[in-house]
Amino acid sequence: MKQGSMFRKKTVPLLTMISPVTAWLILLIALPLLYMLVISFCGTDDSHNIVFRFTLKNYAKLFDPTILSIYSNSLIIALLTTVICILVAYPFAYIMASTTPFRKTLMMIFLMLPFWTNSVIRLYSWRTLLGVNGYINILLMKIGLIEAPIEMLFTRGAVVLGMVYTLLPFMVLPLLTVIDKLDGGLIEASGDLGAKPAQTFLHVTLPLTAPGIFAGSIMVFIPCLGYFFVSNLMGGGTSQLIGNVISRQFKEAFNWPYGAALAIMLILITLLIVKIYTKTGGSIDDLGVM
Amino acid sequence: MRRRRKNAIKKHTSRVFSALVYLFLYAPIAVVILFSFNTSKRNVLFEGFTLDWYAKMAGNTALLESFKNTLLVAGISTAIATVIGTITAIAMFRYKFRGKSIIDLLLYIPVVIPEIVLGIALLSVFSLVNVPLGLGSMIVAHVTFQIPFIVFTVRARLSGFDRSIEDAAMDLGANRIKVLTGITIPIIAPGIVSGAVLAFTLSIDDIIISFFTTGAKSTTFPLKIMELVRSGVSPDVYALSTIIILATFVIVLISQITVYRANKKSVKL
Description:
The complex is a heterodimer of chains A (290) and B (269).
Chain A: H1 2-39, E1 43-44, E2 50-51, H2 57-60, H3 65-98, H4 101-112, H5 119-130, H6 135-142, H7 156-181, H8 184-192, H9 197-226, H10 228-235, H11 242-251, H12 256-279
Antiparallel strand pairs in A: 1-2
Helix pairs in contact in A: 3-7, 3-9, 5-7, 5-10, 7-9, 7-10, 8-9, 9-12, 10-11, 11-12
Chain B: H1 2-35, H2 52-59, H3 61-94, H4 100-112, H5 115-128, H6 135-158, H7 164-171, H8 176-204, H9 208-213, H10 221-229, H11 235-268
């Protein structure tokens, strides 16, 4: 009797509420990822169809020198982007945290505003600015920094610029959260005890805000590895990312098993980074949700 | 005296630094707006003022069609994801059950892994079960990456929710549906709305997942631009973008001002 009422009171509403999401997550996240793992061990026939026979050749191909150089290029771009984002976002978040509430709201709105609009067109218009005959070259020549126009587009630097431009707020937001929580008393105490501002920053402020730096770095570093469209737009194919190779396997070369193996590697890299992050005390809840 | 001067320098550097960051963020937007009025077709230098591109844009059916698709996909997928996500967040807040941690884990996957992985995994499965690629498959894909964001935003709002209100309503004779629609949902409504807005913007701006899950015939605005990059983006695309940018700015500013005023009022109370 009691069990019956318990069933009606808890199990029925729970099942009705939880089954749509369970079905959705299993069918459209778990199974697709498992299927990708499966085909990464398969081959293809002459007309690009997947042949379900076990092979390791897709994984062997990952150690190709050209692929390894793309991996290292991808990691360098992600690393440079992350470092630049920290250097720009840290002081910016600090300024935001120390201004009046009204100004802070205003700064936040104008930080997020560009990100509510199409990122492809915003990236594309960088090409106008950076072009050989573009305004940045004209400006640099006017102030005498360069004598002849320089090619800035279609370089690794341009790709990094595009990444920083696309991902900067993901660094500012977690940093702002930790800097907001900083106890001003601690910083004052450090100063009163004779520490120079630089020492206070290094030994008090920096350790206390480190969780924000880590969370922001993950939110910048991981997307960098896959954002092939930034490389297409800013690098014009000169600076390849892991994402570019994967996308080519699926849309041009039609070697899906090889593309799947590349994606599995990307997942492993991601898991490794997230593992290091949680091991050093980072919370997974601080990632991704703005 | 020295301290005051030091503070003034500090204030000044902060202002210059912030101004430079905003210049970096807004320069490309200024270019989009400026060059939508440019007489030259090549987006290199501004040569003269014209409104021709706006007229051209109004006649560019392929471009307008792609924008209509973007809105359609974002609207439908956000609606579905908001319903599923909100129900999920409430259930996970109310009940302890076996498998809860697995749902949690699956929800984190699309947030943490690079989008491209989810994109190709969905493409592989769609082709395995012969799902035709188009707006439908793209909507399903968008719902998949939107659900976690809705669940997390609604859950954050629920964490401050006092469950005794629900119990009180039940004791007073309200049934379960009535408690949900009359009490729980109105209280968590701000969380639902901000989750839905976030999901909508993610969908509108999505390139990677859409790139893999749509067919050749149904393209979205961001994908259309990517496609045009090879042959050169003509300023009519800038004209449409300018209208979208200005509309977004007005909507965001109005909603933010409303939120700011509402918060200020509630603080005073």
